[in-house]
Amino acid sequence: MKFLMGTIVLATLIGCGQSARQTEAPATPASAEAPAQDSLQASAAQNANSVAATSWQYHEDTDSGSGDKSRYAIVKSRNTIEFGFPYAGAQRATLLYQPRIHSPTIRLIIEHGQILCRSTSDGSNGCFVPVKFDNGALDIWRAQMLSDGTTNTLDFGTIDDNPKSPAICVADQLAKTKSLAIRATFYYEGDRTIEFNVAGLSDLPLPALTKNQLDDCRAKRAH
User: Fold this and answer.
1) 50 vs 73: CA distance, rounded Å
2) What letter would DSSP give residue 111?
3) How far apart are CA 147 and CA 136, in angstroms?
4) Residue 197 and residue 179: Cα distance in Å, rounded?
5) pLDDT tens-digit profile of 62-105?
6) 47 or 131, greater pLDDT
7) For residues 132-157, b (16+ Cβ closer than 10 Å) or e, as one string?
8) Domain boundaries, the chain
9) Alpha carbons 48 and 51: distance in angstroms, whole number
10) Are 165 and 155 in contact (CB under 8 A)?
11) Residue 125: helix, strand or coil by DSSP?
12) C-alpha angle 28-34-36 in degrees, rounded to nearest 5
């Protein structure tokens, strides 16, 4: 009888041990690796979007009145800038290129903040902005604010489609280089350098400059 009771107790203990081992078994490797795979895919997608954002993106607008279509390209800066209150938060600047008959529209646009571009002598609209293409020498380009009072946009050309606009000189450089750095001045924030990848601007027409225009561009860069 004692032998029978011992056998029953031993069998019960063995059964409990097996049940405990089954309960404490770890989760399957597949379920454990799923979050890591999702995180990897999300990271890859984010990186892909980041690369696309800092390359030229092409758009087309249609005038609601005339029905005329216009194409333009924009590229986001590869670096971010950050200002203090009330414009706190990192942001990327935008470079816009839009062809016109004689001279293109080329603009630097920020999301938040105020660009300063006034003459130091008489306060008139306009300033000289340091720019640098690739690893070349520092250039100084003429720029101005928009006539509507917008403070987040800097125009490197003229409002009218002027064949003598300095924008044709900037466009000529955009067609030949891969990177552009612009040093702009901001209200209460000082100077900031904004960098762009500008290679690959090929889907929109670029101005074909005459020899006189090229000479004029070189003269402007020399001053």
Assistant:
1) 17
2) S
3) 32
4) 5
5) 888 888 888 899 999 999 999 988 888 899 999 999 888 777 88
6) 131
7) bbeeeeebebbbbbeeeeeebbbbbb
8) 46-222
9) 5
10) no
11) strand
12) 120
At residue 210, the 3 state secondary structure works out as coil
Q: How far is CA 26 from CA 23, 31, 32, 187, 204, in A?
A: 9, 10, 10, 59, 59
CA distance 152 to 115: 6
* 86, 88, 92, 98 alpha-carbon torsion, rounded to 10°: 0
Instruction: Write down the pTM of the prediction.
Output: 0.69
Cβ neighbours of residue 83 closer than 8 Å, sequence gap 6 or more: 112, 113, 186, 188, 189
Q: Which residues pair with 139 in a beta bridge?
A: 131
Classify residue 6 by burial, with Cβ atoms within 10 Å: 0-12, 13-18, 19+.
Answer: exposed
Beta strands in the chain (DSSP E): 57-62, 69-76, 81-83, 89-91, 94-98, 105-109, 127-133, 139-145, 153-155, 179-186, 190-197
SS3 153: strand
Structure tokens at 152: 């987040």
Q: Which residues pair with 91 in a beta bridge?
A: 81
Q: What secondary structure letter does DSSP report for 134?
A: T
Residue labelled with tokens 């903040």: 113
Cβ atoms of 196 and 109 within 8 Å: the answer is no
